[in-house]
Amino acid sequence: MAPKVDVKERTKPLESLKQADDGPVPAVLRDIGHGLLPLTPEVNKQTPAVGQRVTRPDSRPHVLGKTVYIDDMTFPDMLYTKILRSEYAHAKILSIDVSEAEKMPGVVATLTGKEIPVVTFGPSYQDQPLLADDKVRHMGDGVVAVAAETEQQAQDALAKIKVEYEPLETVLDPLEAMKDSAPKIHGDSNIYATKTIKKGDVDQALADADYVFEGQFKTQMVEHVPLEPHASIALWEPTGDLHVYSSLGRITLGRADIARTLDMPMNRIRVTATIVGGNFGGKNEITLEPILALLAKKTGRPVKGVFTREDEFISSTTRHPFVMDYTTGVTKDGIIVARKVRIVCDGGAYCSWSETTLGKGAILSVGPYNIDNIKVEASAVYTTKTTTGAMRGFGAPQVCFAYESHMDDIARELGIEPLEIRLKNAFHEGSDSPTGQVLESVVVKESLEIAAEKFGWQEGKGKTNSNKRRGQGIACMWYPIGFTVLANSSAAVVKVNEDGTATVLTGTVETGQGSLTVLGQIAAEELGIAADDIKVVSADTDTTPMDTGAIASRTTYVTGNAILLAAKKAKMILFDTAAPMLGVKPEQLEARDRKIQVKNFPQKALSIGDVALQAQFVNGQPALGSASFNPHTVAMDPETGQGKPFGTYVYATQIAEVDVDEETGEVEVLRIVAAHDCGTPINPALVEGQVEGGISMGVGLALYEEMLFDDNGKQINPNLTNYIMPTSLDMPEVEVHIVDSYDPTGPFGAKGVGEPTSVPTAACIMNAIYDAVGVRITSLPATAEKVLKAIQERDQAQPKQIAS
Amino acid sequence: MDVTIKVNGRERTASVAAETTLLSLLRDSLDLPGAKLGCDVGDCGACTVLVDGMSVNACLMLAAQVQDRDVTTIEGLGDYDHLHPLQAVFEQESSFQCGFCAPGMIISAKALLDENPKPTEYEIREALSGNLCRCTGYTKIIEAIMDVSGQSASHADSKSA
Amino acid sequence: MPRFGMFPAAFGLFDRGSTLKPFEYLAPDTVDEAVAILTDNAPDARLLAGGTDYLVELKHASEVPKVVVDVSGISEFKGIELTDKGLRFGSGVTHTEIMESDLVAEHALAMQEAALTIGAVQTRNLGTLGGNLVTCVPSVDSGPVLIALDAAVTITGSKGIRIMPLLDFFVGPRKTALEPDELLVDIVIPKEMLGRGCSFRKFGLRKGQALALVNTCASIDLDAGKLADVRIALGAVAPTVIRAVKAEKLLNGKAPSDDLFAEAGDMAATEAKPINDFRASAGYRLDLIRTGTKRVLAEALERAPR
Ligand SMILES: Cc1cc2nc3c(=O)[nH]c(=O)nc-3n(C[C@H](O)[C@H](O)[C@H](O)COP(=O)(O)OP(=O)(O)OC[C@H]3O[C@@H](n4cnc5c(N)ncnc54)[C@H](O)[C@@H]3O)c2cc1C
Ligand code: FES
Ligand code: FES
Questions:
Q1: Least Cα separation, residue C87 to chain A (angstroms)
Q2: Residue A202 · residue A375 · CB < 8 Å
Q3: Is B7 within the bounds of a domain?
Q4: Using a 6 Å cutoff on CB, does residue B39 contact ligand 2?
Q5: How far is A717 from chain B (nearest CA, A)?
Q6: Mind listing the pLDDT tens digit for each residue in A563-603?
Q7: Total domain count for chain C?
């Protein structure tokens, strides 16, 4: 199939760089093992792959219905597993009796926590049991696993398991859980993580400020709701090796967890991920994998486990609810001089990704604004509720809702227009972040201006019919790429094939975001071949190199950089091989149009395939490059939070237009205009897709979604009937604009875009509701009932003010 | 019991228990795993197939209820070399991300276009409201259906209908 | 394409097992056969029409009946037709058939409004009017319109045929007047109710696929410019669908006005006994009754023949 190479999609920064930069290949690239990228990206006249709306390599199987997800796989003689979950949100386990269950028809084996070599796991602390053995800490805790011939038989057997509990007091509210009197869920304090960020003298600055504003904001617990539930299959090869097929989004660390919990060496464990049917952070942790492995061992048969939708809600991780108190000092012209933030993060029953969430939440809580005096104190608290973990934005949607609602309140009180107050305070190139990091490629003002212009800011407001009022709201944000200081490395291998095509090996996982496409485009661009000439092989721990996973918007930036570096190394070998063949120095060569050619003398060229053959057959140096990349970070000071926690940041603005029915409180989001920075858009279609999808999650967070618990800690709505996520009828028209920016540390200037897309949505919708009907919703979601109540309170307070 | 259905143009028979759902018949007995199990109770639409041309949730029908009826699944729409126009446009416009909803979405879209070849944007939204998608926000799916029905995906008339 | 990881096509069909517990399946062709099966097996036999309620129930149930009787092939349960009694809906008529029926559009438009709010296309293609009414949840969306149009149901069983007003058919939440050996045959909107001004509104937690927090329907006649024989039905605000009789009384014989409708809405709210649940508070449901009643009255007035 002849690839269509079309340059018209190129975005500006890349285009201009291509003309400007035609220099030699930096020598430092010959020794890039340490993973640091030179600051001048070497982008020159190559076959353009970056910037194209390349068709996804996984599209054909998807549209044909032929993508194989875990639940689509079966193995001969396979068994099915179901998990018995806790009856209590907090209890001691006194005894477990599986004898009756084991006698049930079809049941082949059972497993309890005591049988697991190392029963606990977790990314920061290993506080979470695979199957609870001595204590349950929320209703989603698994207690016993049953493997049977059919799913129904496994399910039926659960009812025959006898577990004796000694119920303990539950605590569902994080503020309650912080009190000394609260029941302790692990150890002797429920506060298990804290983060502090300090800059300047916040108390003095607040005292000196012209005005001080306060506000409290709260967010709810929401679920990722990947359409494909968690699923895995474990089987033991005749070699004695364990093979796990899993819907995990992070196979390398998944394998590490499986190895730890099973007490096995990593080389004996193979984790293969399929294409994941949606992740959003929810599939970053192992769930059933070690359990299935042990059941497979016990029975000598392959064992499959697929979460029901209810399992998905009650036992997989969720988004952290935040309680956020803001105190902000401003001058009378609207310059923010001081900000104090207190965040209490409902950390659920186990730590999971709370450390990262708290870290990101704390840093970002200040907003994308230049504020000299800052104090943020954040803590994560155990409660006897569903585990909170990684979810698209790690705390950022929560704090953005708070700082942007607060910003509009300040603007209104000061009589300053919302866009103007943001432009006044927004970061600029070289701004000093709350942690003292000098920010680069800062385009928050540009995003504000583009969004406002495309939207038609401040036009067409007012009453739309007798009971509906229209309003518009703006919110901007900043968001980092990669983990907070944590090790964050990816490795990649690029192999040039003997016909000039290439294969990329990466340990990242395609979870729908299009990483296979984008990573292939990066490699293609570097090798001077077309995107179709690349095959990306991913997500198999036996063959693909280590990668910290499809998480934290890091794949394009971190894995992309690793692939870029690996491709550079492979290219270097091609240049070294071709140079004597063409009678020039390697520095004079370029890879372009599937050829290695002498710069400015395109007729002096060799096909990449021929060079690759020569490299391998004659020179004994195959055209194979491998590299890893770890973003350069500096640890944060534990007292002040000062440091360089992230490699880079992105910026965005969203503006929403809503109609609010004043008699029912119903909010209809009519449209959202989004202006997002992602560095160079490697594939604009996929960037748009991320923004559109992120906004739909944002709309859910803003208006509909909430996991509800009764007083005993039992979830009330663990199903898609009662957990309300947006359908096609609930989604507004979404318009996406990509803000030009170029990150010198990113692959071809790219940063990332996965998570930030759902960060400002709730905030802009809440500001639009305020604009429409003059009520401030301080806790999400803004259900129609909540909005109507606020409208009624408004009318009681100022009965005359709302004459139309 | 033996159930015989015409699926994707082929007559197939399987021996299943009475309580087997259509979805399980397709996925587990007829090797047609295109329709997905997302919720098992009719909320998500991942299991959407056509029965006598009408879109249904295969998780909410018994296999026995489709005896002698005509079933179309995503596998029956096109193959690698001959995509159905809806499959082609979904591919061109990257109208999916993780793809888990795609088989159901495409089938729902087909059911819509078979009845109404030039739907408005609102009609498309209405027709897809039983198919949840967590990844795409539906935008590119709606645009693809507008495009394939020969209408440019303008947002002008959106949602007001 | 192979569906497995490593073993080449070495095995045939694989039964993963159903997520339903075992039962026997029977599909009678006639009402008489169905009655006979029910009589023989009652109470251990249950009916299945579209299955959109019952299969969900079975999937969650700890006990299943011995026999599941599929009534979707019974021809007496099919069809929408105009008879000398009125507009007749076979109990097996689907919500999609209601939406597509010209007869319904002409004579009872609000039935289509209600049908359109039920689930999504897939649910409406399978789900039947009979199934909806027999499930008899308080939020049953076809209930209010049929009650505001004074519909009657025909029931058959081993002891013969009974006809009763739908209002009496609804006994309580998930409880109807049906005996274990009885079936619902049809639903008839009486002739004199056809074509009157009627409007339905449903309030849910979102627009697509939403269960009703409150649903409201009003049907009216105009007699020399005055409101006559007003019927207001409210769903999801009491154990079963109710009529707001005091509000109706308030309206009858008066000239319609926005203020009067608002007053009727307030009155209707006093007649309902909504519950607090996780979906909404009773107070919010009362607000919706006020607003909804007012709005359906205004729309019914617009549609009323003058
Ligand atoms: C995703 C989803 C969304 C839904 N949304 C809505 C909604 O918005 N509004 C709403 O009102 N409902 C909704 N429902 C519920 C359901 O779809 C409707 O109530 C539907 O009309 C039920 O009809 P059925 O034919 O599927 O009933 P079935 O499930 O087949 O039967 C329901 C009950 O009726 C009995 N029954 C059926 N036919 C007869 C008969 N002829 N005589 C005696 N008993 C009989 C059965 O035994 C069973 O108890 C929804 C369901 C789903 C799955
Ligand atoms: S699996 Fe059938 S609708 Fe979700
Ligand atoms: S593409 Fe993932 S659910 Fe739709």
A1: 32
A2: yes
A3: yes
A4: yes
A5: 13
A6: 999 999 999 999 999 999 999 999 999 999 899 999 999 89
A7: 3
